[in-house]
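Final report, results section. Input specification for complex C-07:
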Amino acid sequence: MMDRSDARSLRTDFLSHAARHPGDVALEVGGKSITYDELSNRARSWARVLVEAKGGRLDRVGVFAYRSATAYAGVLAALCSGATFVPLNPTFPPARTRQMLRRAALDAVIIDTGAAPQLAEVLEGDGEAPLLLVPDASTETPAHLRASAIRSEDIHRATPLIDLPAVVPEDLAYLLFTSGTTGEPKGVGVTHGNALHFMDVMSRRYELTRDDRLSQTFDQTFDLSVFDMFMAWHAGAALCVPSKIDMLAPARFITAQRLTLWFSVPSVAALMIKKSSLRPSSMPLLRWSLFCGEPLPRASADAWQAAAPNSIVENLFGPTELTIACTVHRWSPDSSRDELVHDLVPIGRPLDGLGAVLVDDALQPVAAGEPGELCMCGPQTVPGYWQDAARTADRFVQLPISPYEQRRFYRTGDRVVALRDGGYAYIGRTDHQIKVLGFRVELAEIEAVLGRGQGVLQAVCVGWPIEDSRATGIVAFVGGTSIDPPALLSDAQARLPVYMVPKEIIVVDEFPLNANGKVDRNALVARLRARDPATAGGAGSV
Amino acid sequence: MAVALEPLIAGVLKIPIPSVSDDLEFNGVAEWDSLNHVNLMLELERVYGVPIGDDEMVDLISVRAIRQFLAERAPAGSRPE
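Structure output:
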């Protein structure tokens, strides 16, 4: 039996700041400022309602919401009820949300006004619905789900829960679903211990204070949002949430919100450069400019540095399985030039406390200076994939490499090369995972969805077009008989998030094969490059 | 010669011309994403000769808003019909 006496967890620093400085602003969202006191009262009150309805601590609570106050209070309410939070995204197709919801076996779901109309569809066909908490009293819950819904009078009458159910470091803080190769999203559970290690290392690095104001550009279904929320709240700083419209003009948002820390995918900077809206010295208040999620081109780092001259530009790298980020490189226009590979900023050195090795296909260490697959160990390595022991055993391995024989490594699937300064530079993937505008996409998942279509014998997807070495979309090649591309496309739209839906489906009579008899993806990309010479830019790691 | 708005928008977004109604909005179809929004703004600047700053970028998020903006701000000779 695990000792469940409460330990420090992801909620702790937020709650202690709320007790010390209740009037500080914790959250700016939808034109409203919400103080630490208001946010913690809301989270604790919802936690009381959930715990009383369940009759004790909850295991997993979904947060089905998007860039609303409820989305953030919901995450904290889940943690205050002792539960793992599971972000669900109303901009995803309901069929995908339903898959996640079923896989996660939720005790409860907290729903905002924007997500509520999808509720009937995402809960369709399930036996017993989880507890439903819809804080907005004016939002209608579908009649057949009312038995599961907590009454709005009960939500609004609830007082803050004081004695929170205990949390231990081994408990999962959050469960996220990323693109999986089998045609279904795969779950990654991250413990409080994993997350706190990351937060503590990064808090020492960035030394944020109550005066800082952080961006929140990432959707909550993207784990980098955990950095935004909890780095802000650990420091007693303000979390500033742009709407989708605000994200069309990031510089305007940065100025209006007086942000001191910016964190986004590099594609945002590339778009600003394209629109000439990244003007020199236009963002003087920024102290930190952080990028993660996809390769950072040198030109983007340079332009951003010039626009935010008082900020330090850093490139972070890391998969969800290693808790938000596991390496970091501090950009310096002078010193970094000779470390560029393919004109991309290096991914940098492992965070304090993490170990890294490069291995070949046989999991043997590569010779010094040779590229290899990056494998990392340490306190940020998550326990594994949600209810998937086989896949966990495949990616989380022990390596016969001194001094790490007893450690558990995660194989990132990223090919990197070691640099002289002890850091690494990114080269490409060892498999068919790509990033589209920062979103992690297993091409095999799209291929599996298309492969179920009428008449389809084979589907192969590639990242296209490529701009600045990065895919901005996906093109699918399909082979078979009597294929109906519009029908395939609408089926893909119903099952996949927008960034995974092919921009184009091309029917082929036969696929080009390589020497091993496998479909030659490079030859397919070459066809697109020959067809669209204007958009072929850059070598790219597709 | 003035260029009609619908085919321009349809061309940038790569959608059929008849689907470009006044009610069409940013994110209303998958093709009108943030990347294509920038492409659309650049094309409007180029074709109609009107500068579009950050303040306009976040306002011009429907075909109706774009049409009104061009009627008021584009040089007389280049306004869409």
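The mean pLDDT of chain A is 92. The longest helix of chain A spans residues 36-54. This concludes the modelling results for the funded period.
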